[in-house]
Amino acid sequence: DAKTTQPNSMESNEEEPVHxxxxxxxxxxxxxxxxxxxxxxxxxxxxxxxxxxNVNNRMASLAIAEDRKSSTLILHRAxxxxxxxxxxxxxxxxxxxxxxxxxxxxxx
Amino acid sequence: xAGVTQTxxxxxxxxxxxxxxxxxxxxxHRSVSWYQQTPGQGLQFLFEYFSETQRxxxxxxxxxxxxxxxxxxxxxxxxxxELGDSALYLCASSLQGAGSGANVLTFGAGSRxxxx
Lengths: 108, 116
Description:
A: six-stranded mixed sheet
């Protein structure tokens, strides 16, 4: 199975950018890179996904390395509501296996 | 548009009993996946159904089973409950079928099961 590696935790200050890294060295050519986040007492929610090119949406940006062995989720201005566990997942054929994720703490 | 609805939200059972959890997907979504979340193991994939057929299965014992109905609603059942089955059970629905890694999951709020 393709696996991802993320830091256990990260801290950020409010209104500053946050870069959440993810390594996926065994990624195959057809694996999509997905990011989800889970706020306290809620189910995970979709953040962003991409295949090869960098992606932007209203929530975040996804920067994918040229060799696709790593990616970075970018929150441009962290708010207190962004405090959550962020999961980086490789998705193929609707099979999505979550790792431990990165717990992001946002300090006021 | 209504989201993914899971019922019941909370329930308490005793060891040896069985439990059935329900998941109503977003209208039009044909795929439903189930996950177990515990503090020690994190989010673990249980199984995925698409058009009433189980397509993928995680590494769980046969006590965990599921099914999907023609209206895409899904149920999962756990028989002979053990203390270690205490967890948050999450279901997620998605629109696209197999072969699309771009498939996006929408999760419900979960059913929190406590086994005493």
